[in-house]
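Example for tutorial group B:
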């Protein structure tokens, strides 16, 4: 894990090869180290992203930048689902102080 110039922890969500919602949820669980009880649905993802108790150690005080990379194939394969995913990322950013989500290389 790295940090940005502002000292926030940078976490990468790698969606390379993901082409459906189930794959997205599995990748979120893996890359974000979400607990086993993570519900693998849109509401659970929004709640998990906005919950500082689920962020990496030290991130609560410093903040988190979540970089979503490899997203373009998913967005092209399932545009309606990708629209929801973008809304979830935006909602989590609005709800979770210190969380920033950005789209990296597609």
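The residue assignment follows.
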């Amino acid at each position: 894990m790295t940090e940005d110039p502002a000292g926030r922890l940078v976490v990468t969500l790698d969606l390379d090869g993901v082409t459906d919602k189930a794959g997205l949820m599995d990748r979120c669980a893996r890359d974000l180290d979400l607990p086993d009880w993570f519900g693998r649905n849109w509401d659970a993802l929004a709640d998990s992203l906005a919950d500082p108790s689920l962020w990496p150690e030290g991130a609560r005080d410093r903040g988190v930048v979540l970089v979503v990379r490899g997203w373009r194939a998913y967005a092209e394969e399932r545009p309606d689902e990708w629209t929801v995913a973008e809304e979830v990322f935006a909602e989590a950013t609005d709800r979770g102080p210190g969380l920033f989500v950005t789209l990296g290389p597609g």
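The chain has a mean pLDDT of 92. Compare this with the pattern of hydrophobic and polar residues in the output above.
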